[in-house]
Amino acid sequence: MTDQKTLSSRAWMELLLLAAIWGASFAAIRIALDELGPLTVVAHRVGWAMLALWAVVWWRRLPLPRDARVWFAFLMMGLLNNAIPFGLMAWGQLHIASGLTAILNAATAIFGVLMAALFFADERLTPRKVMGVTLGFAGVATAIGLENLRNFDLRALAQLAVIAGTVSYALASVWGRKRLGDQPPLVAAAGMLTGGTVILLPLAWAIEGPITLDLAPRTWGAIAYVGLISTALAYLLYYRVLAMAGSGNLMLVTLLVPPFAITLGAWLLEETLYASAFAGFGLLVTGMIILDGRIWRLWAKRAR
Fold first, then answer.
1. Helices 234-250 and 9-32, packing angle to 10 deg
2. What residues contact 114, with CB distance under 8 A and at least 6 apart?
3. 32 Cβ partners below 8 Å, 6+ apart?
4. C-alpha–C-alpha distance, residues 264 and 19, integer Å
5. What residues contact residue 109 under an 8 Å CB cut-off, 6+ apart?
6. From CA 73, how far away is CA 69, in angstroms rounded?
7. pTM above 0.85, yes or no
8. I want to staple 262 with a disulfide (CB 3.0 to 4.6 A). Which of 54, 99, 130, 142 is the partner?
9. DSSP code for 79
């Protein structure tokens, strides 16, 4: 990993806040799913977040892109980073615990390393990265449970759907680096959410019926959280932490999200996880620590 800075106390606090916000989103989505279909939930999520971020773009008077190719890039980014992963993971949460969804979601970092190695010459796989990726895959397999894959029931399919969502996230990071690197981050985020909304609104309407605003207060609270807090506000906080901590340190969020999601899932939803899920998360954490490289470099330095 590159671009690692020393984390200040403020950076640590905001990193933990971001992890808590994202961790709580899994429980909020599960609550919304009690009344709405998964595509409708994510259509609400990206739609309200889109409006909030464009309001911030307008307030900051940021220039808007005029090139049609940029708007096509926004559309593809909305597909890869919003429509596909949000939809798959929301559907997955109908059949597996929100905490397990968060654990499997952590595999995004593993697939991100693989996709970067495939598409960028400066991101080749080193022996350290191969070791980290291998442990990460072992963690995913342990969390899912090979016996579940043999049975291949809805629970197994839901877990594979979540993993497919992490692959889509990884592809989105490649697409964003190739096509949107010259855009202001806030404009890119708002444009991406616009692309996701353009895809999800008609899709949800066609598959799950008209989008209704006549919802229970509990459902509106969950939608408001995932749209305005865990998406719109989280993007603003994400770029703030990125500027303070660097991209290498930002990967720590991936390790911090599942504990929040597991705790809230147990408290709010009375969920329980199998021991294999925790064992898998332990292997994932070990793999990501190796990918991060800090401990590896410290050992090498002491050895010299």
1. 120
2. 125, 133, 170
3. 41, 44, 219, 222, 223, 226
4. 13
5. 136, 251, 254, 288, 291
6. 6
7. yes
8. 99
9. I
